[in-house]
Amino acid sequence: MTGEAWFEANRRNWDERVPIHRRSAFYDVPGFLAGKSSLEPDEPDEVGDVAGKSLLHLQCHFGMDTLSWARLGATVTGLDFSPDGVAAARELAAETGLDAEFVEANVYDAPDALAGRTFDIVYTSRGVLTWLPDIPRWAGVVAALLKPGGILYLREGHPFAHVFDDEAESGLSLRYPYFHGPEPDRWEDPGTYADPSAETTENETYEWSHTMGSIITAIGQAGLAIEFLHEFDSLCWEAFRWMEPGEEPGTWILPGHRESIPLSYSIRARKPS
User: Fold this and answer.
1) pTM (two decimals)
2) Residues 183-214: pLDDT tens digits?
3) What is d(CA 184, CA 13) in angstroms, rounded to the nearest whole number?
4) What is the C-alpha separation between 14 and 223, in angstroms, rounded?
5) CA 102, CA 86: separation in Å to the nearest integer?
6) For residue 51, with 0-12 CB atoms within 10 Å meaning exposed, 13-18 middle and 19 or more buried, which class applies?
7) Residues with Cβ < 8 Å from 34, sequence gap 6 or more?
């Protein structure tokens, strides 16, 4: 299996999980409809004022983060390869009464799918780079989608944290390699991070691991100037079974190991004017 077949397997997996996520406590759609933001608390400050700016959210799933930016005044477009995800995002936008556009396309096809439009902000976050085989190509797509002076904001799980055993009941033990070749890892996992007990049939996925160095290098070689790289000791999902809730709602920490490893990071990079 190669190329499009990998993406097709991943798309089937995400299509099946959209309705599960839509009704899960993890995503808390009722809370979102009541006005709760799905963004991490410091993201608006890290991105800066978005009022009146155009924002493109790549790999937007069913649109909660996209619409959270709309609530802050951005003119938003979300893009995802899952037709079920895009349909759910459009339904959610209608329920909120927020103005948003959602486009179905593979992230690598985004420039064509968006007819060459460019944006003030390209936003992407939370477990998305693992679904992409080619990070330099991704960075080139981002650069092409930005207006001169526009910014990329990336919020992701830290690749160093991915080397540890995510099935261990306690403690940090090495399980996965940090450095990977071009071939993806194949997984066959039922359920979903939002509801591990959910009954699912489309469980085959293909994922790629990327080092911090490869991500930063790709962004720089695409012509974007990195303004900051911030690393954090918390995550917005329970990556290890023995994590505990953090101080901020919806965050998770490693008890007893909080200063041991970075769990997530953010990058802001700007396209020259």
Assistant:
1) 0.96
2) 999 999 999 999 999 999 999 999 999 999 99
3) 16
4) 32
5) 6
6) exposed
7) none
